[in-house]
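Key result, reporting period 2: structure in, sequence out.
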């Protein structure tokens, strides 16, 4: 790791909430979301000319029973100072497209995740049977703790515009029960298809409020408890929604350290964040300070992430490791999952060896620790 990266790792951890405890949390986005439904769907989309660029459009798929079995085995294989396993805080979606109803009603219709799994079990029990039950078991064993990532990982307005136009890429995807390589709609500047809460006109915020409220209700129905924390897809959210989320019981919002926030019609405000409760806000701001994306750049991710964890602990900061499900799913390519899980296990072993006093915590636990001042 170069001097520039080393200095960045250390300086970025200076501001914000501190603790003398070695707290390690994983924040892993996109669980529960459908992108590619199968290898066959991917091949057919490519044959139809749909542009499948990047790792998400080539490897990302709904979490299978085998994905959870193998992930849980790795998490249980390494213990912290209290004998606890590492826990994945999965920023998860409780709903997906109801493909049949959407096509028949010619508008976006969603279905809850448990219904999605039930439908898939009937189609292909070899892959999907018992997946949702296993997810629930993982939650009860504290191996995985889903938190709110929005109702669905798409922009409903953009979806309905593309559907109205019968966009060929979208229609090909819907026929194959997938959502990969979907283009943006030219009439919606600054709105990308997968950005649930991006917008052009500020009037869209009312629609976002309705989706958030319904999404949190769906989340409680699917996962069996209320979400304490939230991060939106692509971390894009109008600041006016912060207080609204607080009113719905959200204790923490996961946001970038520094980014340009769209206020509407091309107007932006730069937002700088640090870990902890910020001025005039009644929620904890979570800022991730470590990155672990083993199926992206060709680097030594175990060493790369460990050095960031090391810098966080040096400054008395919890190490909040940012990742995505695409690193650990194997429906499209089992070797992708194996690569990600092997790196995860090696990282956990390295951390425990270097820091025998490390504590594995979920993001909701970390937020409670911050709020309680421990």
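The corresponding designed sequence is given below.
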């Amino acid at each position: 790791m170069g001097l520039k990266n080393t200095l960045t790792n250390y300086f970025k951890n200076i501001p914000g909430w501190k603790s003398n405890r070695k707290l390690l949390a994983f924040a892993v986005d996109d669980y529960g979301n459908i992108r590619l439904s199968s290898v066959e769907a991917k091949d057919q989309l490519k044959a139809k000319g749909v542009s499948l660029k990047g790792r998400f459009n080539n490897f990302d798929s709904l979490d299978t029973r085998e994905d959870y079995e193998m992930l849980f085995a790795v998490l249980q294989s390494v213990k912290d100072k209290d004998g606890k396993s590492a826990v994945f805080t999965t920023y998860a979606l409780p709903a997906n497209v109801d493909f049949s109803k959407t096509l028949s009603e010619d508008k976006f219709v969603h279905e809850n995740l448990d219904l999605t799994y039930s439908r898939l079990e009937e189609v292909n029990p070899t892959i999907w049977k018992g997946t949702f039950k296993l997810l629930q078991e993982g939650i009860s064993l504290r191996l995985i703790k889903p938190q709110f990532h929005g109702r669905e990982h798409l922009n409903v307005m953009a979806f309905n515009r593309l559907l109205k136009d019968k966009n060929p890429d979208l229609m090909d995807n819907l026929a194959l029960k997938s959502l990969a390589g979907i283009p943006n709609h030219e009439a919606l500047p600054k709105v990308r298809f997968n950005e649930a809460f991006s917008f052009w006109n500020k009037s869209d915020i009312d629609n976002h409020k309705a989706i958030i409220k319904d999404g949190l209700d769906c989340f409680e129905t699917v996962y069996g408890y209320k979400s304490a924390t939230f991060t939106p897809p692509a971390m894009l959210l109008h600041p006016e929604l912060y207080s609204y989320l607080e009113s719905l019981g959200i204790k923490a919002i996961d946001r970038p350290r520094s980014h340009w926030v769209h206020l509407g019609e091309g107007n932006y405000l730069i937002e700088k964040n640090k870990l902890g409760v910020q001025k005039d806000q009644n929620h904890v701001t979570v800022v991730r300070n470590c990155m672990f994306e083993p199926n992206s750049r060709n680097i030594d991710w175990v060493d790369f992430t460990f050095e960031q964890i090391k810098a966080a602990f040096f400054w008395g900061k919890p190490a909040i490791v940012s990742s995505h499900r695409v690193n650990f799913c194997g429906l499209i390519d089992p070797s992708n999952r194996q690569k990600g899980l092997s790196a995860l296990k090696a990282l956990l072993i390295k951390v425990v060896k270097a820091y025998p006093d490390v504590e594995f915590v979920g993001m909701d636990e970390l937020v409670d620790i911050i709020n309680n001042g421990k």
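The mean pLDDT is 96. DSSP finds 15 helices and 14 strands in the chain. This case is discussed further under Risks and Mitigation.
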